[in-house]
Prior knowledge:
Number of domains: 1
Keywords: Membrane, Transmembrane, Transmembrane helix
Transmembrane segments: 30-51, 57-81, 107-128, 174-203
Number of strands: 0
Order of helices and strands: HHHHHHHH
Largest sheet: none
Low-confidence stretches: 1-8
Number of helices: 8
Strand content: under 5%
Distance between the termini: 12 Å
Amino acid sequence: MSNSKISKDTNDMGSFIGKLKREDNNLQKLYKILKITYIVLLIIYIPIFYFEIEKGGLVPILKVVFIVSGFSIFLFCMAYAQKKMKKISYAEPTLMLLKKTEKRYRIFHPIDLASIPAFLFLAVGLGLNEKIFLTIKQFFNSDLNWRVYLVEAWQFLFSGEHWYKMFAKTVNEFPMIIVFMATGLFIYILVILLVLGYILWILKYKPIRDNALELIKEIEN
Length: 221
């Protein structure tokens, strides 16, 4: 291998490590900020939870339980991610460092699945009220046809034809449509967040992973 090739590879690796350190540091700061945010939110909701228990009533307690559960899951995810970032060592052998970087900057990690129930708990906690709770309770206690309700909900959510008239008519005849509508809205929001997350990964994090893969290939060859 020529001296110029060695020099170029060394410069490429040095430039990559510098960029990697900056991005890792930014991610660690972000996880720390989010962790502190969820801790503060939990501190706020703990006394609220206590007062709701003192007042009695199932729905207010359920609201706080769902919200606290959502915040707790997000807190665990942020704390776990920050802990992993703090353990990163740039003194490791180059190939090992690159392979860990490639793994760290993949688009999906198993712990990401925890964000789905966390987001769902927050959506339920923030949207639940006495009327919706009673409607759900009546729905599950009734002997009415599930298929009819699901077809009605599907038509309402996806037909788009005179939906405002359909809504006024349907809410009186079929109160559970509000719950189905909220579920549909939750799915829409979740899909939008996934798309935005994918775009962010493509623009900001995929180049780092691709660079790591290229360097791994060069070293192994």
